[in-house]
Q: What sequence folds into this?
């Protein structure tokens, strides 16, 4: 078999030159048959997904900050309550020096004054004074008072 000769007189070099490039990496499509398929992306969809992910992350971070703030606010309220009860106990009548880590009992006397006592509510016997039990408390090392038990009707 004889090879057929190529007639180059019909070949349009200018037209074929337009189909080639010196920098194939700048083409928006694959320049060879085996090249990677390049599909244009929907930029709106990409931005929308990114925006949604960003919003979810910021919402999660804001929720975490809110939980931390709530915890701090609760701790601050506990400290305020501890100060209130401690001030009330230090204003109460006491005929002894309270010791750290010992348990005492706070009562309200008939005339309205508070009294700190070593006697528990069930230890008064038959001749119980006309007093109202307010709370059982413990003196802490920082000289604040921890409420161990309290009368539901008592307001601090």
A:
């Amino acid at each position: 078999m004889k090879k057929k000769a190529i007639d180059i007189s019909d070949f349009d070099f200018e037209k074929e030159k337009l189909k080639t490039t010196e920098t194939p990496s700048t083409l928006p499509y694959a320049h060879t048959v085996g090249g990677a398929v390049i599909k244009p992306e929907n930029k709106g969809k990409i931005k929308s997904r990114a925006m949604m992910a960003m919003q979810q992350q910021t919402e999660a971070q804001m929720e975490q900050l809110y939980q931390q703030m709530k915890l701090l606010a609760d701790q601050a309220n506990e400290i305020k309550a501890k100060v209130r009860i401690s001030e009330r106990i230090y204003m109460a009548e006491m005929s002894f020096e309270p010791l750290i880590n010992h348990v005492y009992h706070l009562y309200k006397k008939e005339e309205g004054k508070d009294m700190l006592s070593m006697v528990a509510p069930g230890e008064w016997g038959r001749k119980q004074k006309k007093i109202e039990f307010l709370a059982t408390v413990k003196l802490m090392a920082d000289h604040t008072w921890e409420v161990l038990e309290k009368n539901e009707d008592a307001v601090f």
